[in-house]
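Human:
Focus on the backbone:
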Amino acid sequence: MDKLLEKYSFSNGYARFVTTLDNPNFKMWINPFNREFVKKEDDTLYLFPMSTLKEFKLNLMCLIFYYGGYFKGLNCGDNEELRDKFRKMGLIIREESK
């Protein structure tokens, strides 16, 4: 695993924001527990922390709208608590743990 990305795992509360644009140089993770988005572009990580769950949900919905048809869902791996948190928000969960 890329050292830059070790922290951003399912077990640490991060879901993969899956799009058809994903590639080794572009990936995104979101964490509803600490209300944070993380984007990897090339060798740079961009962190987007939010103050409230309301702000997190609004920004997440904007992100989904922005990616439109490219958005494929959220991959929560085997983290049932993470999966439940997003289901309560009414979001699409990808069931595979890749």
Observations:
- The chain has a mean pLDDT of 88.
- Strands lie at 15-19, 26-31, 36-41, 44-49, 71-75, 93-94.
- The first strand starts at residue 15 and ends at 19.
